[in-house]
Amino acid sequence: MADWTQQAEQMLKSWTEAQKNVWDSWQALAERIGGAQPKPQAFSMNPMEWLQQSMSAWTDPTGVAGDAGRQVFGSQFSMMRNLEMLTRAWQMIAPKLDAGQDWRSPLSAFTTDWFQQLTGAPGGLLEMGKDSQTLWQSYMNEWGPLLRPWISSAIDATGSGHLGEMMLGGSAGLSRLFMMEQDEFQSPPFSGLADIPSVGVAREHQAKILRAFDAFVDMRNVVLKFNKITMGALKKAVETMMATLVEKGKKGEKIQSMRDLNRLWLDSADKVFTEMYASEEYLVAQRELSSAGMTYKIMQHDVVEMVLKNLNLPTRSELDDAYKTLYELRKEVKALKKALREQPKPAIEAKAATQNAIKQVTTKSAARPATAKKASPPRKKAASRAKPAS
Amino acid sequence: MLSLPIDIQPRDAVKEIKEINEKITKGLEFLSKLKDVDVDIGSTPKETVYTEDKLKLYHYLPTQEDLLETPLLIVYALVNRYLVADLQPDRSMVRNLVDEGLDTYLIDWGDPSPADKYLTVDDYVNGYLDDCVDFLRERHGIDKINLLGICQGGTLATCYSALHPEKVANLVLTVTPIDFHAGKDKLNPEIGLLFNWGKGVDVDLMVDAYGNVPADVLNFTFLMVKPFALNFGKYHDMLDIMDNEKAMMNFLRMEKWLFNGPDAAGEAYREFVRDFLRDNKLVKNEKTIGGKLVDLGNLTMPVLNCYATADHLVPPPCSKALAEKAGTKDYTEMEIPSGHIGIYVGGKAQKMLAPGVAKWLRERT
Questions:
Q1: Sign of the C-alpha dihedral computed for residues B31, B37, B42 and B43 taken in this order
Q2: DSSP A382
């Protein structure tokens, strides 16, 4: 029925109007709160970013107020995006519903497109890890000039697209890169070349860099897998939300406020995500993601250590050694102090104490008639002495 | 006939936006005047009576004359900060305990630096905690003190009490995990989710990579349990209170606590995740600390076990498992209708937890 489309179009119109209203009022708000004219260009290019950055100037930059303010803007921004997404999704499925056709499959395609647009990188979320040159460049971007002395040839090689040249430095890990996305029945064209060793001091350095690259590649692949699962949950969340709306439509129920609609979406999405979290598939993907991330971090440390060593600066391993020694010494000192406090007084001290006591008795007995010294009540068992407050 | 269930008229949408923005404006005016120090947490008057490395032992200044003779030592978790137990004057377990006439002490573990990454559970339990207990025994001239554990701090207090029963008069536990594998509910998958995730993580790799586990990583995990509600929904709902300064301050205090946690000392974290979360050794009576078995049968002192009915982080069965294992003949449970954090900051809990603990302790003195 045309009504569906008309209604959805009407909704979109409302949404566009509302969004415009939001930006206008936020600009006015920015002027009012900030006490200064916002930079129109920066605001019009990305109002959300501008507002969030401005929070630091408007509030105590070290405080929780600024963070909360940023989050409020962020949540309103996300509400607007969610409403647009839900309305467009509804607009898309409405005719299918009306015609009694399958609406879930087209919705799935719509959701994929929507979230890819949202992340700003159509290939970024789901397909990263396929292009070796892009991967290498991305990896190098993480390191910047730090590794230039060791890998300038590799950078030049990738810059010219000659990955083979880089490979001749020798890395078993690179074989893995070339194996990516190939099944075992295909013969990887370059895998053998990657095993050719190079020689000399540079080899060890390059090996560390390339091992880190291997871990980087592995991590990207795992991220890819993880993102696919997350994307699946997002799709399911939208589908569940649409199903809820359909049910409400059948019952004649109405959602009359943007915030109610947004709340329904957040609840619905959380439910789907929580179910996903408990699935074995997710637990495996999460485990792999965590392990790949940590492995890459450890490889990064190796590379940083190499750089620091070359600059004659202390490395983390060296610091860890010092920390360990410090920890053990501290523990030993504490144990010794405790033992000292708890052990019975040495014989010589005890003897001196006895002598003092005898002297006291002698002095007292000389002054008054001898009486038995009343024993003081035993103090409740006192604990070993701990260090007092400093 | 089917109809579009979204019935937001342009006029209504504009009106709603206007209202939202009025609230945001008012809220931002308030936020812009606010200094971070104004968002005060942990304000119950206290003095530092003992320090060791980064640890501080606080003594809360008594407000009542009829003080219970045996002091109460609060043991907080190694993740997050103790301040949730003293968030604000009208939402403070600590203040309530003090007002109930309990001579209250609390351990602030401090922020582990990289130099503390080798600290183990043994160092925390048989080192720091034991030193604090000894300090209090000497200060008060008594043999035994009362212990109160908070969440993971309760697990540590349980271990300590099992290892040193001669120094603990009464053990009070709040939302404390004992059986880390209990309480799963297929109908409510978020229940016990954190422990489930924790089991799967390669904690060796994590500690090797990080050294100390950063607070941000721990926080991220907490937030991911309900990603939409905790990352967006909460701030979306914050709109309702943006024109209410008191409510905003309450909100900000909680935010400050949430996002200002310490890193976790690497080795202790590794040991905790491996032996407690993953291998569940405590409830199996298999955990050793400092070369000694932590035998829950040694918990012969009276035990009060408080749990929260809607706790999805430490589901009640995780805590209640102690009933079967503790060696005491005096075991009591207290059920608080709240969530994991609500037991300390919730309105109802204010009237139940501290008064209940005080009454229980007085009955045993």
A1: negative
A2: P
Q: What is the mean pLDDT of chain B?
A: 92
In a mutational test of the A interface, the residue from B1, B8, B122 whose CB has the highest number of chain A CBs within 10 Å is: B8
The answer to whether B51 contacts A389, with C-beta atoms less than 8 Å apart, is yes
Across A311-343, b (16+ Cβ under 10 Å) vs e yields eeeebeeeeeeebeeebeebbeebeeebeeeee
ipTM over 0.90: no
Q: How far is A352 from chain B (nearest CA, A)?
A: 26
Q: Please tell me whether residue B354 adopts helix, strand or coil conformation.
A: helix
The span from the CA of B221 to the CA of B223, in Å, is 5
Strand spans (E) along A48-137:
none
Q: What is the pLDDT of residue B157?
A: 98
Per residue in B323-352, pLDDT (tens digit) is 999 999 999 999 999 999 999 999 999 999
Domains, chain B = 37-363 (3.40.50.1820)
Distances (CA, A) of B80 to A318, B118, B151, B262: 29, 19, 11, 6
β partners of residue B174: B150, B306
Best of A103, A255, A266 to substitute, by most chain B Cβ atoms within 10 angstroms, is A266
Q: What pLDDT does residue A347 have? A: 58
Task: State the Cα torsion B304-B310-B313-B319 to the nearest 10°.
Answer: 30
What residues does B292 pair with on adjacent strands? B289
Write down the pLDDT at residue A373: 39
Question: What is the pLDDT at residue A211?
Answer: 80
Indicate yes or no: CB of A4 within 8 angstroms of CB of B34: no
Name the H helices within chain B. Answer: 10-33, 93-99, 121-122, 130-140, 152-163, 193-200, 203-210, 215-224, 227-228, 234-237, 245-258, 266-271, 316-320, 322-325, 342-345, 347-363
Whether B132 is catalytic:
no
Residue B144: band (very low, low, confident or very high) from pLDDT cuts 50, 70, 90: very high
Q: Which residue of B has its CA nearest to A290?
A: B201
Residue B352 tokens, joined: 């139940």
Helix (H) or strand (E) holding A320: helix A316-342
What phi and psi values does residue B105 have, to the nearest 5 degrees? -125, 155
Q: What percent of chain B has pLDDT over 90?
A: 70
What per-residue confidence (pLDDT) applies to A143? 64
Mean pLDDT of chain A, nearest integer: 70
Tokens of B139: 């200060």
Q: Which residues of B317-352 are buried (b: 16+ CB within 10 A; e: fewer)?
A: bbbbbbeebbebeebbebebebbbbbbbbbeebbeb
Chain A: nearest CA to B352, how far in angstroms?
A: 30
**Non-local CB neighbours of A212 within 8 Å, separated by 6+ positions:** A139, A296, A299, A300, A302, A303
pLDDT at B152: 97
Nearest to A95 by CA among A107, A80, A85: A107
Distances (CA, A) of A128 to A137, B65, B92: 13, 68, 49
pLDDT, tens digit, 9 for 90 and up, residues B63-100: 999 999 999 999 999 998 999 999 999 999 999 999 99
Give the type of residue at B347. G
CB contact under 8 A, A383 and B208: no
